From TrEMBL:
PROSITE patterns: ABC_TRANSPORTER_1, ABC_TRANSPORTER_2. Residues 13-261 form the ABC transporter domain. It comes from the Bacteria. It comes from Beutenbergia cavernae (strain ATCC BAA-8 / DSM 12333 / CCUG 43141 / JCM 11478 / NBRC 16432 / NCIMB 13614 / HKI 0122). Belongs to the ABC transporter superfamily. GO terms for molecular function: ATP binding; ATP hydrolysis activity. Keywords: ATP-binding, Nucleotide-binding, Transport. InterPro entries: AAA+_ATPase, ABC_transp_ATP-bind, ABC_transporter-like_ATP-bd, ABC_transporter-like_CS, Oligopep_ABC_C, P-loop_NTPase. This is ABC transporter related. GO terms for biological process: peptide transport; transmembrane transport.
Length: 282
């Protein structure tokens, strides 16, 4: 965790609405409509790690996908460094590059037929100015070293690596484009707890060494505790609480946050300081 930066906003999300329309079950029934994101406004400050938490289905990934330009909101705006972020294919190259994502499952997000080196070089084919052609061998070794991998893994395929190593490759691929904002969607959720801790440590170190701002999506409060400067809590598409991490864990203000904390403590077998609240809610 970095010292909580109180700096300017790098990312400004305002009044974001996303509705998904599902298929009709029959000609007589209306299509199902899901309000995935409902009026969310949120700032991510330069240099901080903001964790976006909430139960499954609360809308966290949809917010992340809007930031990446993969989902088009029905309403609202997203600005990066003061510039409006549209759909990914309409973004100028420098904005596409500046906002990168690390997904949950590197097993499916890394092409199994490509070597690690080819996966990373592919990013530079799209954005050649980041690593001029003559320098790519050194740049590849440097980015792999940055994420704690031996440059020799460039020759190997993702399937020959462990889950933790694969996630390091995903981080290297994002880092290769020198982003300022890294969106991590459940980036450590598929990993064993000990490997999780190593990847979180890596992200914390990279944030400091590469001057990154991180939007970290997770349902896991134990992870939040390790990495977040501030925490935003979503419930049923709405933002219900936003607080510095220390404050949220010691004195959550929203009953839903209290319930989430109580449930997390229960799962870990630790006495739940907020269990009473949870019982009152049920
Ligand atoms: N492409 C889609 N089409 C239809 N509904 C969707 C789509 N993507 C998400 N949803 C619905 O929107 C709601 C929010 O989903 P979202 O994935 O953003 O939540 P989440 O908090 O990230 O949950 P999880 O951690 O399970 O991914 C859910 O009800 C989900 O089923």
């Amino acid at each position: 965790m970095t010292t909580a930066p109180g700096g300017a906003s790098l990312l400004e999300i305002r009044d974001l609405d996303v509705t998904f329309t599902g298929p009709r079950r029959s000609l007589r029934t209306p299509p199902t409509v899901v309000r995935a994101v409902d009026g969310v406004s949120l700032d991510v400050r330069a240099g901080e790690t903001l964790a976006l938490v909430g139960e499954s289905g609360s809308g966290k990934s949809t917010v992340a996908r809007c930031v990446l330009g993969l989902v088009r909101p029905q309403a609202g705006t997203i600005r990066y460094d003061g510039r409006e972020l549209g759909p990914v294919d309409k973004r100028p190259p420098e904005l596409q590059r500046a906002v990168q994502m690390v997904f949950q499952d590197p097993g499916s997000s890394l092409n199994p037929r490509m070597s690690v080196g080819a996966i990373i070089r592919e990013a530079w084919q799209v954005h050649p100015a980041v690593a001029p052609a003559g320098d790519r061998r050194e740049a590849l070794a440097a980015v792999l070293t940055d994420v704690g991998l031996d440059p020799g893994v460039a020759e190997r395929r993702p399937s020959a690596l462990s889950g933790g190593q694969r996630q390091r490759v995903s981080i290297a691929r994002a880092l290769a484009l020198r982003p300022r904002l890294l969106v991590c969607d459940e980036a450590v959720s598929a990993l064993d707890v000990s490997v999780q801790a190593q990847i979180l440590r890596l992200l914390i170190d990279l944030q400091a060494s590469h001057d990154l701002t991180v939007l970290f999506i997770t349902h896991d409060l134990a992870v939040v505790r390790q990495i977040a400067d501030r925490v935003a809590v979503m419930r049923k598409g709405e933002l219900v609480e936003l607080a510095p991490a220390g404050e949220l864990f010691t004195s959550p203000s929203h009953p839903y946050t209290k319930g989430l904390l109580a449930a997390a403590y229960d799962l870990e077998g630790v006495e739940a300081p907020f269990r009473e609240t949870q019982e009152q809610m049920s």
